[in-house]
TrEMBL record:
<feature type="signal peptide">
    <location>
        <begin position="1"/>
        <end position="19"/>
    </location>
</feature>
<dbReference type="InterPro" id="IPR011990">
    <property type="entry name" value="TPR-like_helical_dom_sf"/>
</dbReference>
<dbReference type="InterPro" id="IPR006597">
    <property type="entry name" value="Sel1-like"/>
</dbReference>
<dbReference type="InterPro" id="IPR050767">
    <property type="entry name" value="Sel1_AlgK"/>
</dbReference>
<dbReference type="Pfam" id="PF08238">
    <property type="entry name" value="Sel1"/>
</dbReference>
<keyword id="KW-0732">Signal</keyword>
<protein>
    <submittedName>
        <fullName>TPR repeat protein</fullName>
    </submittedName>
</protein>
Length: 727
């Protein structure tokens, strides 16, 4: 039996009451020992202050432990009430020996398996512990809202709890406050102040602060404040020298991927393996799995079998991320024989405990036609349950389900309604989607000014995603709604880059190279893109390759473009393989090589890229670069369409008209194009118009041709279906 559960801090915290949304965890009330929520035993006796504080804080620690059981789905209301009754019975805090009677709830009542998570009950206990003077309870509350695993992620609330803990002298609270200030999470961004707070802790020998500083300077890290890999690696090494295993894992990762140092894959992996072997740290196992499956953007040869093995070991240790990744790979047949039902069961097991990440992953699986027939009702139920637990990302997923999943009939009004719910819950992605759809008049009345105002409000608050979206809108323009404005687009991308966005830096660099919206500066722009690409960013490598391949740098350099695409492919970008296939299929400065093109498309398809599978099917049907197999090729193209890519039906129609797969079949072409048109492909409507205009495979019919052409015009012009044009 474990006893003690002592805390060293002794502090009374205070804050302002805040009403809780229905079904969500409560937030910080006014705190003080006179609260009626404090157990009777604490208020009854008045022993010496020292013994009283010791008893109260020990009792608070047990309340925290009981809250953890609720949070993690390891207790029931009945079992927890038995524990609370025991603690309330400790009515003699003046007796020092009484402190040893305060034992861990898991020892007192045991651990209940398969109990649902109850974040509301957990939060109530954490609040009571905070009311007793526990800054650790405030940290638990902050973590609850920051992680968003069983309650809605809410950075503002998390910051308030961390700030209370920091003011109570909690070092971890100070660290989190510094981090959120530096990144502008839940509070106005103040990078200088945040870095100063973290640096003060690091200078005092806090290894977690050193790792955090490394994360803030590491390229590609979430919330990066500056891209300085050398500085990041130096901080990680200092943390590792203090014996901090997280620092050692980071050093190993950067050594293996060649960030801030000469790449040495074997040495880096050995560092990570050493930590795993010595500590059995599941975080190290998950890192190794990520490295081999490309989910982290490393540069190690993809080995999904190894990745699955590492995730499985993490899962066997009870690590939830390991269970999640193992379930996903099992269900999708990545790195192991596919077992859809077994993988789905693993995700369902987590989801049934109220794990919102698992609920969302389950929804993703159930709505992915490339894995199994879409189970729309079950997917919606999973997302809705995550939303009911307060996870607004699930509402965004539901909106995407009805607006961005080609395997499901588009329903813009329904999608917009979900995005509005997410927006009202404070979700930034939801707010952006609402702004975008309002500009386009999709699922709602078009109002360009209002939509832009909503996105600009987010951009003004420093949201780089909003800046990038606005930059993209002004770069492309929207026919009849928003004229292209390269100068404004470049300004948004530049501001995004200044805010630490890798994507903003890449887009601004591209525009410099091409002289779009700014004076042409090939050298300077290319350097911006290369800096990010050299740090191991797949998107930047894709951009660099495109600039080299299309001649934007002054000449076409297909050879260097292929090398850049190869690096991107090694980082887990199968679409890079498709681009290389295109280069070899079309020819140019590199001679056309259909066999090579086919092989690259095949590799992309094996890595999960639907365009690669589509090209492979088309070439198989035509006998281009491979032995002709018309039925197999057509079926592969059809399967890509079923999986949600409507362009596959355009390709299918083209094949039926080409004569390359047998006699021209106008009826089959019309059916394919109609299918594509129903899923929003305006080019399919144009092809149908051409078909009836020319009478190819069908009787010529000018009236039908004109009807299809008009439909194509409407489909390509958002204003045509968005009500009266507003100027």
């Amino acid at each position: 039996m474990r006893i003690g559960w002592l805390l060293v801090a002794s502090v009374v915290v205070s804050g302002s009451a805040e009403a809780s949304p229905a079904g969500q965890a409560p937030t910080l009330p006014a705190l003080g020992f006179a609260s009626p929520d404090v157990p009777r035993a604490i208020q009854a006796a008045k022993p010496s202050e020292e013994s009283r504080d010791g008893f109260v804080l020990a009792l608070a620690a047990s309340y925290i432990a009981l809250g953890d059981l609720y949070r993690d789905g390891k207790t029931t209301a009945a079992a927890a009430e038995a524990a609370l009754a025991y603690y309330r019975g400790l009515d003699n805090p003046g007796r020092p020996a009484a402190i040893y009677a305060v034992i861990s709830p898991s020892d007192l009542i045991g651990v209940v398996k398969d109990a649902p998570a109850d974040p509301f009950a957990a939060s109530k206990l954490y609040l009571q512990a905070a009311n007793m003077g526990s800054s650790e309870a405030l940290m638990r509350l902050g973590d609850l809202y920051r992680e968003g695993r069983v309650v809605a992620a809410d950075a503002r609330r998390a910051y308030l709890f961390y700030d209370q803990a920091a003011k109570a002298g909690n070092a971890d609270g100070k660290l989190r406050v510094g981090e959120m200030l530096a990144r502008g999470q839940g509070v106005a961004r103040d990078t200088g102040k945040g870095l100063a707070m973290i640096a003060a802790l690091a200078d005092a020998g806090n290894p977690e602060a050193l790792v955090l500083l490394g994360d803030l300077y590491r390229p590609g890290a979430q919330g990066m404040v500056a891209m300085e890999p050398d500085k990041a690696l130096d901080y990680y090494r200092k943390a590792a020298s203090l014996g901090y295993d997280v620092g050692k894992l980071r050093v190993g990762e950067m050594t293996a991927t060649g960030q801030g140092t000469t790449q040495d894959v074997q040495a880096g992996l050995a560092m990570i393996e050493e930590v795993v072997a010595r500590t059995r740290n599941p975080a190290g196992l998950v890192l190794l799995g990520s490295l081999y499956s490309r989910t982290d953007g490393g540069v190690i040869a993809i080995d999904l079998g190894k990745a699955f093995g590492y995730f499985r070991r993490a899962a066997d240790s009870g690590d939830e991320t390991g269970i999640l990744r193992t379930g996903e790979m099992l269900a999708r047949g990545r790195g192991t024989a596919q077992s859809y039902q077994a993988g789905r069961a693993m995700l369902t097991g987590l989801a049934d405990h109220g794990d919102t990440f698992a609920l969302i992953a389950l929804g993703d699986l159930l709505s992915d036609a490339a894995v199994a027939p879409v189970d729309l009702a079950a997917a919606v139920t999973s997302y809705e349950k995550a939303a009911s637990l307060g996870h607004s990302d699930a509402l965004v997923r539901l909106g995407d389900l009805y607006s961005r999943n080609g395997a499901i009939a588009s329903d813009p009004p329904k999608a917009f309604a979900y995005y509005v719910r997410a927006s009202r819950a404070g979700n930034l992605a939801g707010k952006l989607r609402v702004g975008e759809m309002t500009v386009l008049g999709q699922g709602t009345d078009r109002n360009v000014a209002a939509g832009l105002a909503q996105m600009n409000a987010l951009a003004d608050e420093g949201d780089a995603n909003a800046m990038n979206l606005l930059g993209g809108l002004y770069q492309r323009g929207i026919g009849g709604l928003l004229p292209a404005n390269p100068v404004t687009a470049f300004d948004y991308f530049s501001k995004s880059a200044e805010a630490g966005s890798v994507m903003g830096a890449v887009r601004a660099g591209e525009m410099k190279v091409r002289g779009q919206g700014t004076s042409k500066d090939v050298v300077g722009g290319l350097q911006m893109v290369k800096t990010v690409a050299d740090a191991g960013n797949g998107e930047a490598l894709m951009s660099l390759a495109a600039l080299l391949a299309d001649g934007s740098t002054g000449k076409v350099d297909a050879t260097e473009a292929v090398l850049a695409y190869e690096k991107a492919a090694a980082l887990g970008r199968p679409d890079a393989l498709v681009r290389i296939g295109d280069i070899y299929r079309l020819g140019g400065t590199i001679p056309a090589d259909p066999a090579k093109a086919f092989d690259y498309y095949r590799r992309a398809g094996m890595a999960g890229d639907e365009t690669g599978r589509l090209r492979q099917g088309e070439m198989t049907a035509r006998g281009e670069g491979t032995r002709q197999d018309i039925p197999a090729g057509l079926e592969l193209v059809r399967q890509v369409g079923i999986a949600g890519d409507p362009y596959a039906y355009v390709v299918l129609g083209d094949l039926h008209l080409s004569g390359a797969v047998g006699p021209v079949d106008g009826a089959a072409a019309v059916a394919a194009y109609e299918n594509a048109a129903r899923k929003g492909r305006a080019d399919a409507l144009l092809r149908l118009g051409d078909l009836y205009r020319d009478g190819k495979g069908v009787p010529a019919d000018g009236g039908k041709a004109a009807e299809y052409y008009l439909k194509a015009v409407d489909a390509e012009n958002p204003a045509a279906s968005a009500g009266d044009v507003q100027n």
